[in-house]
Amino acid sequence: MNRRYILSAIAAAGFGVASMLAAPSPVQAQTKTIRMWTFLSATGTTPREVALSQIIKNYEGKNPGTKIVVETQVWDQMTPKFIAAHRAGNAPDIVWAITDFLGDAINSGSLADLNALFIKNWPATQVADHKSAYWDLTKRGDKQYAMFVSPNYISILYRADLFKAAGIEPAQIKTWDDLRQAAEKLTVRDAAGQVTRYGYAQAYSEQQTDPHMMIPYVLGNGESIFRPDGKANFATSLGIEAMTYATDLVTKYKVAPVQSATWTVDDLFEQFASDRVAMIQGPSVRVSTLQAKLGKDKIGMMLWPGSKTMTHSPAVMAGWAVGVWSKSPNAEEAGKFVDFMLGGESESIWVTVGGQSPLMASTAEAVKSFVDQPGNGYIRVAAEGSSKYGWLTPIDFNVGGYRQALAKATQRILIEGVAVKTALEEAEQRFNRQNNR
Amino acid sequence: MQSRFVGAVYVLPAFALLLLVLFSPVGYGLWFSLFRIQYGAPTDFAGLENYLRLLDDPVLAGTLRRSTVFTGLAVVFTIAISLALAVWINRLPSRIGFIVQMIVILPWIISTVVATLLFRWVFVSDIGLAGSIMRIYGFSDIQLLNSPGSAMALLIAVSVWKRLGYAMIILLAGLKGIPDDYEEAAKIDGANSWQIFRLIVLPLLKTPLLLVAVVLTLSNLNTVETPLVLTGGGPGDATRILPIEVYERAFVNFDLGSATALAIAMFAGNILLVLAYVRLSGWKA
Questions:
Q1: Chain A within 8 Å of B59 (Cβ-Cβ)?
Q2: Cα(A238)–Cα(A394) distance, integer angstroms
Q3: Which of B245, B223, B236, B262 lies closest to B63, judged by CA?
Q4: How far is B53 from chain A (nearest CA, A)?
Q5: Contacts for B59-64 with beta carbons within 8 Å, 24 or more apart?
Q6: Are residues B127 and A274, on separate chains, in Cβ contact within 8 Å?
Q7: Mean local confidence (pLDDT), B200-218
Q8: Per-10-residue mean pLDDT, chain A, length 437
Q9: Across the interface, do A411 and B235 touch by the CB < 8 Å criterion?
Q10: What is the ipTM of this complex?
């Protein structure tokens, strides 16, 4: 009897515990998890990661029923992986898509129409506030498939302290010859003739490659690096001239290091931060990180030199666009968060904490005093460049691999001594073959 | 009759799991490679079109040649060094032998990406540790990553260093399994050390050597992390091997059709290699 009593008591207690565990608490019952793929970590310490973390915290504070889960991805694989995950039916609710694959993401039907989700509720003034080349890039008819969160203007980052010491003003660099002469002036050699600091550098490794400096050169002279049918247009006489200019900095003028043929972007930033290079090609979004490391007064940004027809050559605007997965079961909540993350309140955080340049005219006005502070001038430079001298990669056809193709051509010229024309023709063939064109 | 099925019933769950985890992706990949792929999804049936495109690619022959050189040299060096280490450790007093074993195993248990990054930081031009040391002693900077030949040599060296511990452990286990009586009997018969090693130890190590050779060949042939992090396939195409080719086709150019076809071709090559190894060595379980 006693034993049966004990067993009954244990069973009753077990059922009680099980039912307590099974029944959701009031908070759990209402919590909705939104998965977001980005290359930033919500627990990271770089300015943009801190900004993202703060924005998520603000949103969750205002929406206690929603939990934003950031799933950090490798940046150059994230968009293709998202498209594959869309096909497999397990994509995240929100994705940050890179411009190179934005066309594929839209054409694959993986992105939801943000107009239907939340833009339709905006007043006309708010829509007008967002309009820019970035806005138009992700618009198809009356549908808006993504919105840019991280405009990335890729031009020249320079060491302001080294410029000052050499008596060079960025405004003096108006032509490509001026840029080379500035690089010559900034190059320092020791008594044995060894270079201790290079005037200019760019990373040419195929791993996580930035766009080549020949692109602004070609664009500034009125040509494109792609033909209308999507085929590569590298080996034109202008393309050869541009590539020759870039490689001559290494081989003829010796103001750029041959080692950069195998440097990654991270290697380049290490060199820049350790006084080994005075000017590099770099994106606006990395300035705040570099400033956090070296000091705000030491890093500046300037636009590319101009040509006979343009004051400044157009720079590649790579950037990240945010979209909602078209098959997301939480599309409405995901859209609500995207609306918040790209809204005025959050954009001020992206600018003042994350160090990004503003996309909206109202934000540019709101953060004017912040931009005017010493060391923040790069934000104005990037904003001016984006509005007047920017070039976005076409999204009507896949351009994946164009940066690698040009980087490889540069390696072939610098290390294997291949002729510029031959290297560019090979790069063209490779790009066209890889893209079935 | 009943007893014939008992064994099969026991292995069925493990086999089913293996089928699901290992072979279903291969089956899906094979099916996928027979279609035209648009935006990550199969559209029209294309038969062998993706495979024929591989044959038409003029750079693929070079990639295959480099893969063969890389894999062959990495396997030969790893086995030679690990065998020498295993023989040496086997003769050390047990405590010292244990410490040396731990040191040799260390690279094997470090994450490949971390280990490769360490090498990159040492050898990256200008700011690398190796260059700094060379400059301190008055030599000019070494630029291993900037020369096609030395970049491949460095890639092989990293691969050997990374897998040495695994090979050494397997071979050491094989050595410890050889009874001391054989060596003693040979010594009494007047055999010298080299004869004992060549005529007694080596034949008895045949099974572990074959196992090590197969595993090393497959792991080197299919490694993507090491070349991707260390050289990115460069300079030029100098260290571009098959796994990098698959990676770039899939994740840089988003050409999933030919990437899958190449991956399936590599899978078939892997199986053929294993069969060839087993056949050539006359291995019996």
A1: yes
A2: 20
A3: B245
A4: 10
A5: B59/A430, B59/B237, B60/B245, B62/B237, B62/B240, B63/B237, B63/B240, B63/B241, B63/B242, B63/B244, B63/B245, B64/B242
A6: yes
A7: 92
A8: 52 50 50 94 90 96 94 88 90 92 89 96 92 86 92 92 94 94 94 88 88 95 93 96 97 94 90 92 88 89 92 90 96 96 93 87 86 86 87 83 93 94 95 86
A9: yes
A10: 0.75
Cα distance between residue A76 and residue A402, in whole Å: 13
B22 C-beta neighbours (distance < 10 Å), count: 9
- DSSP lists the bridge partners of residue A155 as A282
Tokens found for residue A321:
């666009």
In angstroms, what separates the C-alpha of B268 from chain A's closest C-alpha?
23
Homologous superfamily, domain A27-152+318-391:
Periplasmic binding protein-like II (3.40.190.10)
The whole-angstrom separation of Cα B245 and Cα B60 is: 8
Neighbours of A141 (CB within 10 A): 7
Q: How confident is the model at residue B84 (pLDDT cuts 50, 70, 90)?
A: very high
Q: How far apart are CA A435 and CA B57, in angstroms?
A: 12
Cβ-based contacts of A262 with chain B (< 8 Å): 124-125, 145-146, 151, 231-232, 234-235
Q: List A391's β-bridge partners, or say none.
A: A316
| Residue B49 sits at the chain A interface (C-beta within 8 Å) | no
The encoded tokens of residue B269 equal: 């090559």
Per-residue confidence (pLDDT) for residue A435, from 0 to 100: 83
Most confident option among B80-89, B135-144, B225-234: B80-89
Return the CATH fold of A153-315+397-434.
Answer: D-Maltodextrin-Binding Protein; domain 2 (3.40.190)
Which residues of chain A does CATH 3.40.190.10 include? 27-152+318-391, 153-315+397-434
Write the Ramachandran bin of B236: left for phi over 0, alpha for psi from -120 to 50, otherwise beta: left
CATH superfamily of B64-232: MetI-like (1.10.3720.10)
Evaluate the omega torsion of the peptide bond into residue A257 and state whether it is cis, within 30 degrees of 0. Answer: no
Tokens of A299: 């890093």
Tokens at B274, concatenated:
């294993």
Q: Is B43 on the interface with A (CB under 8 A)?
A: no
Q: Residue B246 has what pLDDT? A: 94
Spatial contact of A229 and A398, defined as CB atoms under 8 Å apart: no
Instruction: Say what the pLDDT of residue A74 is.
Output: 87
CB contact under 8 A, B231 and A262: yes
What's the burial of B253, exposed, middle or buried (CB within 10 Å: 0-12/13-18/19+)?
A: buried
Q: Domain residues of chain B, as ranges?
A: 64-232
User: Å from B232 to nearest chain A CA?
Assistant: 5
pLDDT for the residue B127: 67
Vertex A16, ends A11 and A18: CA angle to 5°? 95
SS3 call for A74: coil
